[in-house]
Amino acid sequence: MSDASERSRELPREVWETVFASLDSEADLEPLSTVCKQFLAIADALRASLSVPDHLAPHLPSLLSRLPSLRSIDLSPFRGDPSGVLLQIARSRLPLLERLDLSNHQYLRLDGLREMGSKFGALRVLVLSRVALLQDSDLVSVAGCFPMLEELDVSYPELSPSARVTDRGVSALSRKLRRLSRIDVSGNQFVSDQSLIALSVNCPSLREIGFRDCSFITQSGIASLIKNRPELVSLAANDIGLAILYEELGDSFGYARGLRSLDFSHSFISDGLLMSVAEANIPLKSLVLSHASGFTFDGIQEIVLKHGGIEVLDFEAVSFLTDHYMGAICEVLRGLTSINVSLCSRLTITTLHDLVRRCPLLKDIKMERTNLKKYGANETDMAANSQVRSLNISHNAKMTDECLGKIARTCPNLRYLNVGYCAEITGDGIMGVLKSCREIKHLEISHCRNTANLCFDFELPQLEVLQAEGSGLNDQQLAAIGRRCCHLKRLDLPNCLNVSAVGVKEAVSHCRTLREINLRWCNNINVDIAVLAWMVSARPSLRRIVPPRGSILSKSQRDFFLRHGCLVCD
């Protein structure tokens, strides 16, 4: 440690700041911050976001004093009364704070919010998703506390007879938040067309709106919204019966000038509606029809032909799609960057081959529960796409090692791969992928049980996350993972019945950057207080441990581990 500290003095602080600022994510700052006091100060000065779980709350005052550049604070993991934490934040000096997340709480404590509003009235983004007892008066108070809000999420509150958000609350909110550009009211069952009209009339800067699972919103309300706000960029709705195309809704797309993202997932829509969208002169970049029905390929094709600049497609569970149809889409949409065709059971390896070959900018592919099995294309027809970073092909039960290997060779620069629940693949197939795709950071092999021949016999310095729930991993393989994966941060092993404390100790001993380990339902592992103490002391980087059989600690023991920076979960 002293040698590292000495070396840090050889370069000016400005040089180290430039190096730290070039890191991929803030998570990379923590291991560097342990090297010396200078590195800790630089890391603190650069940190822009902070998540506050329960065990971090007592240390919040000192943390906030060290993090002057914070822009975002996330209180959604905190399970206590947030008022005290909000008061601490309000009394701190955070000149750049612009985002606060209070999701998952039982109710809003307005005293804490008012204190926050008096100090951070210019807050730009407030997230109140899944707040249990949200009601109209809360929306009015929020608007009064934070009049400069630009983004607000009040989606999916827990509905009750005594607490609900209605048109009255949304209308009052809209009159006070003139700068509002994005709002999500999804899941508020008592919100109707009146709310859409109020938001569109009273919020001149409105650009994005989500109202999924709002049963009282109709085609007429959507049409009024589009006409009143032709600059809308994003529109997201679902469960809306749009099969019968009213002329008003069809005509409204002619008013839209900026619509880039359209989401009609879980809706019953018609070809007529899709053709109205196709005919509109809009800069459409994202189309989501996940789990939608009532239309045919004619409607999709019309949109694709008229809007060749589409970059994001989500056709999950659009069951009529075939390889032939997808080939036609790939031929036109050469600029695709992301596609989801999961649960389209007629799609085979031919579609994946077409996507990789014909869409050179593609980065993200989801083909869960499709029909990937044997590779049908000739080896000479294979074309590598170095842009693909994320591939989710889980739940393809008939996919073979040969098929997986050839897929990996077409996507050599993968960072994320999910082959969970692919029952046919073996350890040889998984190792073949890791040899072809040396940049993988996140690998999921959950419920891949044929891993007896999995042999980690080469270094995997890029791997940071391994999710292997219910897999066939054993102690020997776990020890090899510890030795070969020098930058592993998260190890998920729930329900892995072939591992014991021996393998876990090997992994913990060798993974110097390990932050999280999940051993839930690993019934062959006997973890007592002594083993936990050894894990925390042997691996200071550990921040979270999930033991095999739930809570085994008293409150004082849990607090002891918290003081050492590690949360032992139930």
CATH superfamily of the domain at 456-570: Ribonuclease Inhibitor
CATH fold type of the domain at 456-570: Leucine-rich repeat, LRR (right-handed beta-alpha superhelix)
What gap, in angstroms, lies between the N and C termini? 35 Å
Q: What is the number of E strands?
A: 23
Task: Estimate the helix proportion, in percent.
Answer: 25-40%
Biggest sheet, open or closed, and with what strands and sense? 21 strands, parallel
Secondary structure category: alpha/beta
Mean pLDDT: 89
Summed up, the helix count is 22
Low-confidence stretches: none
CATH top level of the domain at 456-570 is: Alpha Beta
Q: Sum up the overall morphology in one term.
A: globular
Q: How much β-strand is present in the residues? A: 5-15%
CA radius of gyration? 26 Å
CATH architecture of the domain at 456-570: Alpha-Beta Horseshoe
Per-chain topology:
Elements: H1 2-8, H2 13-21, H3 29-33, H4 37-46, E1 49-51, H5 60-66, E2 72-74, H6 82-90, E3 99-101, H7 110-119, E4 125-127, H8 136-145, E5 151-153, H9 167-176, E6 182-184, H10 193-202, E7 208-210, H11 219-228, E8 234-236, E9 241-242, H12 247-252, E10 261-263, E11 268-269, H13 271-279, E12 286-288, H14 297-306, E13 312-314, H15 323-332, E14 338-340, H16 349-358, E15 364-366, E16 390-392, H17 401-410, E17 416-418, H18 427-436, E18 442-444, E19 465-467, H19 475-484, E20 490-492, H20 501-510, E21 516-518, H21 529-538, E22 544-546, H22 555-563, E23 567-568
Parallel strand pairs: 1-2, 2-3, 3-4, 4-5, 5-6, 6-7, 7-8, 8-10, 9-11, 10-12, 12-13, 13-14, 14-15, 15-16, 16-17, 17-18, 18-19, 19-20, 20-21, 21-22, 22-23
Helix pairs in contact: 2-4, 6-7, 7-8, 8-9, 9-10, 10-11, 13-14, 14-15, 15-16, 17-18, 19-20
